[in-house]
Amino acid sequence: MNYKELIDPELRKSANSFPFNPAIVAVGNLYQDLEWGRTKAPEGMEETEIVTEGTQKLSVKTTVFSMADAQADAPALIYVHGGAFAYKAAAYQKKLAMIYAKKAGCKVFFPHYHLAPKYPYPAAYEDVMALYRYVTEHARELGVDPTRIGIAGDSAGASLAALVCNRWEEENVKMPCLQMLVYPVTDARMETESMKLFTDTPNWDSRANERMWDYYCGKDGEKRDKASPMWCDLPSALPGTYIETAEFDCLHDEGLAYAEKLKQAGVDVEINETEGTFHGYDAAIDTQIVKQQISRRISFLRNGYRERG
């Protein structure tokens, strides 16, 4: 299908498709590294690093973004980047993290977790959970309000963020104060209508999605279910949640299904079904449509932190 005729005019130049395989990922990650380094923090923002112990006792680097004048009890956001569990963080995700830090007035902790296929599930989850535990346990020395630590992610990163939220009780950590999930990966069973329909959408489609799960979990159905937020047993409570979907995205319906699962459990869920969009559309960060959705995300973060302040 010619989706470019259906996509928002501002996004059409970005509506491209790329193969998803180990060779492309390897080349892509070299490019991601270069672009990350070229993307500098704006004046008034500090970019620092911490190192924590993650999966298999391996070191995990986390980039921390905060305004230079941030208060000693600022709220915090663990922001987990997407990339099919295999790609390194993109420059636009770094820009988003800095926007969240500035506009929501929080310190953003951006983990560079271990990637598939070399490190399959549960490596990435263990890295992110270890970082979340570290921030909650060392909040004061990190200049963070321990009652206002939220978690967010996009795509595969949203899947990891959701797992942290779902397992706070069994992991014996504090419940995050909010979660923000942007076009989330939630269900390895891949049985939704959008998954069946969108086999050739820009940037991401159901064929690439199946390869992603193969790289991350193999064909192990039990492991796939454990890695899927949709099939997690929910804890006794969950924080207010924002879920954003893209219209022409194979993940669209599983995002809505997960929102419904949370609502049925009594969770306050804000759903934002963006139109004329595709998976990863917010890489076009300077367009008006993306700026509008970022504003809505910022409002959710600010309101969530304010309620706990």
What spatial form do the alpha-carbon principal axes imply? globular
Termini separation (Å)?
A: 48 Å
Beta-strand level of the residues, as a percent range?
15-25%
Regions with little confidence, pLDDT below 50 for 5+ residues: none
- What's the arrangement of strands in the largest beta sheet? 1-2-4-3-5-6-7-8
Mean pLDDT, all residues:
97
Based on DSSP secondary structure assignment, what is the total number of beta strands? 8
| SSE arrangement, N to C | HEEEHEHEHEHHHEHEH
Gyration radius, rounded: 18 Å
Q: State the helix count.
A: 9
Structure description:
This protein is of the alpha/beta class. The mean pLDDT is 97. It has helices spanning 22-38, 91-103, 123-137, 156-166, 193-197, 206-217, 221-226, 252-264, 288-308; strands at residues 45-53, 59-67, 74-80, 107-111, 144-154, 178-182, 240-245, 269-273. β1 and β2 (59-67) form a beta hairpin.
Helix-strand layout with pairing:
Blueprint: H1 22-38, E1 45-53, E2 59-67, E3 74-80, H2 91-103, E4 107-111, H3 123-137, E5 144-154, H4 156-166, E6 178-182, H5 193-197, H6 206-217, H7 221-226, E7 240-245, H8 252-264, E8 269-273, H9 288-308
List keywords for this structure.
eight-stranded mixed sheet, alpha/beta, 18% strand, 8 strands, 9 helices, single chain, 309 residues
